[in-house]
Amino acid sequence: MTQPLLPESTSDLATYRAAGGYGALCASRSDVDLLGDILTTTDLTGLGGAHFPFARKLSVVLSGPSPRFVVCNAAEDEPGSQKDRTLLERNPHVVLEGSLLAAAAVGAEVVFVYVSEILVPAIESLSRALAELDSSPDLLGGVELRIVKAPTAYVAGEASAAVEAIAGRDAKPRAQPPYPAESGIEGQPTLVSNCETLANLPRVVLAGKARPHSTWSRLVTLTGDVQAPGVYEVIPDEVSFGELIERAGGMLEEKDELKAIQPGGPSSAFMPSAAADVLLDDSAIVAAGSQPGCLAVRVLSRRRCIVEDLCELTSFFAREQCGQCPACRMKTQNYAGLMKKIKEGGGRWEMLSQFEKIDEFVLDMPSSCALIAMPTPPIMSGMTLFREDFAAHIEAKVCAVG
After folding, report:
1. In CATH, what number is assigned to the domain containing residue 261?
2. Does the model's pTM come out above 0.85?
3. Distance of CA 171 to CAs 164, 178, 207, 265, Å?
4. In 75-143, which ranges are E strands?
5. Predicted confidence band at 3 (pLDDT cuts at 50, 70, 90)?
6. Same domain, 91 and 75
7. Are 241 and 251 within 8 A, CB to CB?
8. Residues 39-54: pLDDT tens digits?
């Protein structure tokens, strides 16, 4: 395993440099062409959840005119995810080095670090790290690093919403294309990349083309019915969900049995208890029928009712849609309304087909971001895997685990 992203204790500039930090940046500034060659061929993907290939996004930015900009997206709007704030609190310099490497690759003179306004410890840690860099102008290389506080709305972390917020407008997604990589800050090509993604760039550069990123560590936020929820650093193709739960001390109560795993946050499909043997590798999760997202893993015991859980999830999406797109507003509100009826005992079996009909109805309608699709995987997987929970609410009019 290479140098971990999360050290045991908070890393200041001296500690980070003593461990080889900023070595990749210093080496790259003497050969920017090699830096571009490495980063435009890496198989690293966006670790904020979308998993869009970093190399492809970078290539789009490089194909556009100067000036270009970089945005380190640490808004971390995904419920249950704490990896980005933990990274900024414990190892801010690895994020800043990655951001400066991205700036060197695209020739950017300004990097915006976009952090949720409620993440006060992360912002304070980042501010201290920036103050340390101010005393080392050789590392900055003429690049200006600016902190921009993001509002707490769920959609504020979407790439185009981040661009809008940095410009002083409402942090809402805009119609795309053009994408921020084509037209972002000041209408110029802008690389908007997740905090953890950029934190990987130093080791991508140091490894060159010799090592695929899939063998490196990932940050996993573990929540739900476990003894020790928190952020864990794992080698994804070596650790299963069951082993991760064991690492967290096991299930919350000794008598608890695993019922379901949601591997990639609230928009990912549920996996059954048998998925405990699935590796945390992206391809393994997809093969198991779900999505890795940002690895905000939620563990549910058999004391949980999936209907109750889905009622909370659909209410969240209905509440957090920004109101710009009629299709998204209609779908999320109808999903939430249907789940509320089912939960409260007013449901019928034929109502379950309405979810798919709503999906088909909005399929070709325009929307500015991916939120419109997010409630579907948990709903469809929940109805398929845990029909007995729906039967209890629909037929017996009571919660089976209440």
Report:
1. 3.10.20.600
2. yes
3. 6, 17, 37, 21
4. 110-116
5. confident
6. yes
7. no
8. 999 999 999 999 999 9
